[in-house]
């Protein structure tokens, strides 16, 4: 198939975001992204719900408390694939499809290589990491078993993240959603089969997660083969290019570090929470899972603006970049107000999804966390906007610096209050981190826009 015919056929499926109303394009792209994020969150949430309801508080504490560690591990792979996809979106926006495919091929090498190294490294370091996080001997076996299976499945996590990122870079946010819906349903079915009927315990949750992610990766690959001739790679696309690897890593590594640095901060907080016992761990885990669902709108806006900015930056349309950022900021503020009201008035009842209402100590811990953080949601949403905008423009260092500010703020709060204050004091680490992250991001965005004008 010729290049022109391939591009024409591809445009029936993908979306060029360099023309049309910025607000309309962003909303249309964001909604499938939001739904996709919901179903991606559903993996760990489903594990926590079924474990909490059928295996008890200890199982909920074990699985739920691994969220920060899983974010550290999978966030690195997600950051890499997102960074790689920015260059793919820029070459697509510039209509240079040969170079786009070459960068896709180089991304595949890097993503799979990192996944294999991480599987080996984290497999050996599994128990030492958990010891550093203050897990007790009673809960250690469950957590170690769960994370060991997750580490073994990182290759399928990397495969799905990369394939979905390529689709989104070309403006297709719907297809990854459909595959996630299918795999999320499979995940729940396997959770039920392995835990309720198979008696496998927390290991069943981990196996269900890895198998479901593997299915979503296979579906993405089949769809690309059938529907995206513009992404069909040839032998010459896989010719190793150190310069291409360098450019990919220049964006991918800072984004991966940004995810991981943020995750390290949450691991520090989780370690401080673990000191307060299983009820605090379970309550914090339940509240965090609910908050992650609420955050999916912010994450969707961030991923959307990265693709939007990347395509328009590649096309040289910086005025459209400004318009897109401005309207997205207003939408984030509006949703933040809704989320604040929801959490303040209904947070207690939402925790019942994870734990029986009779577990009053667990519910009380979850409500305490919500009371400490809900007011800071506008700052949290703005992080995703400005961080992803800068990444879409091709700047990776300052977004990573925002993650460093988050880490320092969380570590400082934990150091100040841990052992000297109540559980509520530790919860203040999140608002401090969200506000701190914006310190480098917002000024640098306006500096770049002003520099572009000049």
N-end to C-end Cα span: 43 Å
Roughly what is the average pLDDT, rounded to an integer? 83
Task: Give me the secondary-structure category.
Answer: mainly alpha
* Number of H- or I-type helical stretches: 17
How many E strands? 0
User: How do the helices and strands follow one another from N- to C-terminus?
Assistant: HHHHHHHHHHHHHHHHH
**Domain tally:** 1
Rg calculated over all Cα atoms: 21 Å
Q: In oligomeric terms, what are we looking at?
A: single chain
Instruction: Categorize the overall geometry.
Output: globular
Major pleated sheet? none
Share of helical residues: over 70%
Uncertain runs: 1-12
Keywords: Cell membrane, Membrane, Transmembrane, Transmembrane helix, Transport
InterPro entries: MATE_fam, MdtK-like, Membrane_Transporter-Flippase
Protein name: MATE efflux family protein
GO molecular function, one term: xenobiotic transmembrane transporter activity
Describe the structure.
The protein is an all-alpha fold. It has one domain. The chain contains 17 helices and no strands. It holds the Pfam family MatE. It comes from [Ruminococcus] lactaris ATCC 29176. It is found in: Cell membrane.
Write the layout of secondary structure elements.
Blueprint: H1 3-11, H2 22-54, H3 57-64, H4 67-93, H5 97-132, H6 140-152, H7 154-169, H8 174-197, H9 202-227, H10 242-274, H11 278-314, H12 318-350, H13 360-373, H14 377-392, H15 397-417, H16 423-427, H17 429-453
């Amino acid at each position: 198939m010729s290049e022109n015919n391939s591009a024409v056929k591809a445009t029936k499926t993908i979306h060029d975001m360099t023309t049309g109303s910025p607000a309309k394009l962003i909303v249309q792209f964001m909604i499938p992204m939001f739904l996709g994020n919901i179903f991606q969150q559903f993996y760990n949430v489903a594990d926590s719900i079924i474990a909490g309801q059928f295996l008890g508080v200890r199982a909920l504490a074990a699985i739920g408390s691994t969220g920060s560690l899983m974010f550290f591990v999978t966030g690195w792979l997600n950051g890499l694939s997102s960074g790689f996809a920015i260059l793919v979106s820029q070459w697509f926006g510039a209509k240079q499809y040969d170079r786009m495919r070459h960068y896709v091929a180089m991304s595949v090498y890097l993503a799979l290589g990192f996944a294999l190294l991480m599987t080996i490294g984290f497999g050996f370091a599994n128990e030492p990491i958990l010891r550093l996080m203050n897990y007790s001997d009673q809960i250690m076996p469950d957590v170690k078993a769960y994370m060991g299976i997750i580490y073994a499945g990182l290759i399928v996590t990397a495969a799905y993240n990369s394939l979905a990122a390529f689709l989104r870079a070309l403006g297709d946010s719907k297809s990854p959603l459909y595959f996630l819906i299918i795999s999320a349903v499979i995940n729940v079915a396997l959770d039920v089969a392995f835990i309720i009927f198979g008696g496998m315990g927390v290991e069943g949750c981990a196996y269900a997660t890895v198998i479901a992610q593997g299915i979503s990766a296979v579906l993405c690959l089949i769809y690309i083969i059938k529907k995206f001739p513009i992404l069909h790679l040839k032998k010459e696309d896989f010719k190793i290019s150190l310069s291409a690897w360098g450019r990919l890593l220049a964006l991918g590594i800072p984004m991966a570090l940004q995810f991981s640095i943020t995750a390290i901060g949450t691991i520090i907080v989780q370690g401080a929470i673990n000191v307060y016992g299983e009820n605090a761990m379970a309550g914090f885990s339940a509240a965090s899972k609910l908050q992650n669902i609420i955050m999916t709108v912010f994450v969707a806006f961030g991923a959307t603006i990265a693709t939007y900015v990347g395509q328009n930056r590649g096309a040289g349309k910086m005025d459209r970049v400004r318009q897109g950022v401005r309207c997205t900021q207003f939408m984030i503020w509006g949703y933040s107000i809704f989320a604040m009201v929801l959490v303040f008035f209904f947070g207690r009842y939402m925790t019942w999804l994870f734990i029986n209402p009779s577990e009053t100590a667990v519910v009380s811990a979850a409500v305490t966390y919500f009371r400490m953080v809900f007011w800071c949601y506008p700052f949290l949403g703005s992080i995703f906007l400005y961080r992803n905008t800068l990444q879409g423009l091709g700047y990776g260092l300052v977004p990573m610096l925002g993650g460093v500010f988050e880490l320092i703020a969380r570590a400082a709060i934990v150091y100040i209050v841990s052992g000297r204050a109540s559980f509520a004091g530790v919860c203040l680490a999140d608002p401090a981190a969200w506000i701190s992250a914006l310190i480098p991001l917002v000024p640098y965005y306006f500096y770049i826009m002003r520099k572009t004008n000049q």
